[in-house]
From TrEMBL:
BP-aspect Gene Ontology terms: dTMP biosynthetic process; dTTP biosynthetic process; methylation
Keyword Transferase: yes
Highest taxon of source: Eukaryota
Protein name: Thymidylate synthase
Length: 363
């Protein structure tokens, strides 16, 4: 989900992409918006992966009808995007790395909504009303009376989205009643399970968070787009979780996240999703006393809505600037606690993007 407002634009037909298509940065074009002065072209900037995937979709994507009636250009299973979640600390290269948030810079991303929605997921909430009351309207369309009636959920109260992301994360397998029911102790708390494994057995190959529950899909206002994540803890040479591996000593591990997203709205949703899962990985790393490593984004149907084309063409001529740093102001590092997070416990430092670009969200 993500915020919006824009105008439709036709796109010419084209061929299916070739298997060896890559996302190498192109020759830079002059940016048309702030920041000023224009930043130099840096072909190694990780945001070019995103920009070049959009170029690839516009140039070679298949024209496909879609659920919303808007129409898209689409590629299936494009190259993964990889974003570093930390960088060397310039003041002390041998100490902990500096956390980084891959918040796209070629347009302003609605950070308060990204964070608010993520904390809403983690809380297990399934009503869009708390978000809307906080000024975050990204779920209002899917929680409206008209929309709920249109998908056969007329028995639901306005705002009751059903067993969506937060419910699956915190109560997977519980019987969903409504958004007001207390589900404490019901179902599988996947968030708690992930943290426990990160702390107790970081070599586990089953550190997985799934929002895809086939038994509940028809009960949801919208089935999950970002549906599956696997977490992996690595250790530096000579290091291990507890020093029990022969020839190693106890060292802090590095946490990476592999996200699979079945449906990827490149204009609005994907910038949100990148930032959201980066933040989630940072939160889990904090709870388990790990360094944040890499976010790897794997996509299924990666698409550009036809009414986003003009806006994205404007974005494509802008040069990325440095991603901001992230400061978590919470004093319980390593506690294993993932509850009661508050927006004021996050500080994003040095976010200086180009100006925002309005795009309409298709519901």
């Amino acid at each position: 989900m993500a915020p919006s407002d824009s105008q439709a634009a036709p796109v010419a037909a084209s061929e299916t992409p070739k298997p060896n298509d890559t996302l190498n940065p192109p020759t830079p074009a002059a940016p048309t918006a702030s920041p000023s002065p224009s930043p130099p072209h840096d072909p190694s900037h990780e945001e070019h992966q995103y920009l070049n995937l959009i170029r690839l979709i516009l140039a070679t994507g298949e024209h496909r009808p879609d659920r919303t009636g808007t129409g898209t250009r689409s590629l299936f299973a494009p190259p993964q995007l990889r974003f570093s979640l930390s960088k060397p600390n310039p003041t002390s290269p041998t100490s902990s790395r500096t956390p980084v948030l891959p918040l796209l810079t070629t347009k302003r991303v609605f950070l308060r909504a990204v964070l608010g929605e993520l904390l809403w997921f983690v809380s297990g909430s399934t009503s869009s009303l708390p978000l809307s009351e906080a000024g975050i309207k990204i779920w209002d369309g899917n929680g409206s009376r008209e929309y709920l009636d249109s998908v056969g959920l007329s028995h639901r109260a306005v705002g009751d989205l059903g067993p969506v992301y937060g419910f699956q994360w915190r109560h997977f397998g519980a019987e969903y009643i409504d958004a007001k029911t207390d589900y404490t102790g019901q179902g599988v708390d996947q968030i708690a399970d992930v943290v426990r494994k990160l702390k107790e057995n970081p070599y586990d190959r089953r550190i997985i968070l799934s929002a895809w529950n086939p038994a509940d899909l028809k009960k949801m206002a919208l089935p999950p787009c970002h549906m599956f994540a696997q977490f992996y803890v690595s250790f530096p040479p000579g290091g291990s979780h507890d020093g029990s591996v022969p020839g190693t000593q106890k060292m802090r591990g590095t946490l990476s996240c592999l996200l699979y997203q079945r449906s990827c709205d490149m204009g609005l949703g994907v910038p949100f999703n990148i930032a959201s899962y980066a933040l989630l990985t940072h939160m889990l790393a904090h709870a388990a006393d790990l360094e944040a490593g890499t976010l790897i984004h794997t996509m299924g149907d990666a698409h550009v809505y036809l009414d986003h084309v003009d806006a994205l063409q404007e974005q494509l001529i802008r040069e990325p600037v440095e991603f901001p740093e992230l400061v978590i102001k919470r004093e319980d590092r390593g506690s294993g606690v993932m509850d009661e997070w508050r927006e004021e416990e996050f500080e994003v430092v040095g976010y200086k993007p180009h100006k925002g670009i309005k795009m309409k969200m298709s519901v």
